Amino acid sequence: MQRDQLADFLRRRRAAIRPTEVGLADGPRRRTKGLRREEVAMLAGMSVDYVVRLEQGRSSQPSTQLLGALARALRLSEDERDHLFHLAGHQPPPADGVARLARAGLVRMLDLLGDTPALVVSDLGEILAQNRMSVLLSGDHTRFSGDRRYTAYRWFTEPAARTVNPPEEHEYNARRLVADLRAAVGRRSGDPTAAALVERLRGASAEFRRLWAEHEVAVRRADRKTLLQPRVGRLLMDCETLVTPDQRQLLLVLTPADPEARERLELLRVLGIEEFPATPAGLVTGRG
Question: Over the stretch 199-243, which tens digit does the pLDDT of each residue have?
Fold first, then answer.
């Protein structure tokens, strides 16, 4: 761990970010160049004291989970993220697998979308990052670890995962998840991460085994779904998908499909402001 170099890098990256890039006000009274330490701590989900000790070269070695959160909070590029891991004495996360981080460009798009729910998802269904409206709409899905990081795994092994959709859409959603996973596994021919996920799902769920055996293939693109939000009720949402050139990460953007859904989404936004007035409109960083 190169404490002095790590401290210098973190200070300089914090100073290089404009508050508006992460959904914070940039008022005339702001004297700090870039972000304040407490703002970095809030965005990364860690204590201000730990951020201070990191920037002063007095900290213990940060975990890979904390480094991932810092990388997202500071909007680091992939090269900068890898450099951060090296300075902290860790190997950077691999290109694939559960340690993947959302691409910096997609994270910035989450910030720009503001009050429109959006999230970054891997091609295997790991939710890598969400903006605040996405969390208000369906909860924080970046907190999961292990196989629970995969949307399909939770859908087929945890009944509670299906409560976000009405029962009449469950069969359709299950088929969409399996068909999209089939397409991703096909693109990742020979990838042990994808193959192992399928085998664990086959062992855990008879329904998954049945649908997988039907060999349906459908890449996730535009879709329409009904979401059951406990605070505001049913919302009919359109889901548009933007895909990175390598098709390994996707930006999902949800927009209301009718006036009723638009009104309920606005109500949810207002309720969120009343409940969390100090929370910026930007990224929910997750835990690695």
Answer: 999 999 999 999 999 999 888 778 899 999 999 999 999 999 888
CATH numbers and ranges of domains, the chain: 3-87 (1.10.260.40), 104-284 (3.30.450.180)
**Dihedral class, residue 158 (left if φ above 0, else alpha if ψ from -120 to 50, else beta):** beta
| 175 burial via Cβ count (<10 Å: 0-12, 13-18, 19+) | middle
Region at 45 (left for phi over 0; alpha for psi -120 to 50; beta for the rest): left
Return the axis-axis angle of helices 170-187 and 192-204, rounded to nearest 10°.
150
Q: Render pLDDT for 141-189 as a digit per residue (tens, 0 to 9).
A: 888 878 898 999 999 999 999 999 999 999 999 999 999 999 999 888 7
Quick one: tokens of 54? 């990191």
Cα separation, 14 vs 214, in Å, equals 50
Global confidence as pTM: 0.66
Q: Is 86 exposed, middle or buried (0-12, 13-18, 19+ CB in 10 A)?
A: middle
Return the closest-CA partner of residue 129 out of 143, 144, 116, 119: 119
How crowded is residue 101: how many other Cβ atoms within 10 Å of its Cβ? 22
